[in-house]
Specification:
Blueprint (H helix, E strand, L loop, with lengths): L7 E4 L13 E9 L4 E8 L5 E8 L3 E3 L12
Length: 76
């Protein structure tokens, strides 16, 4: 399942090459795909919600935040 552009996500793993830890917030700015797997370019957000760098990750290194992908609606 491909996440939509501009979705807010968080890292599910530490990325020591980028000096980032699990839970860091980011925004999807581009979809990437090679022959083996799907990935994303992310704009990382600082503690004030400001973007400060762009990194590449695989789809299993992120999860959606505040998205219809992880919110279950209750019947009324």
């Amino acid at each position: 399942m491909q996440l939509p552009l501009f979705s807010e996500v968080r890292l599910t793993t530490d990325l020591p090459n980028y000096n980032l830890t699990k839970g860091c917030s980011a925004i999807i700015v581009e979809h990437c795909k090679n022959q083996q797997e799907e990935g994303y370019l992310l704009e990382l957000l600082n503690e004030n919600g400001q973007g400060y760098t762009i990194i590449a990750v695989t789809s299993n290194q992120i999860e959606p935040i505040n998205s219809y992908y992880n919110i279950t609606e209750t019947a009324r």
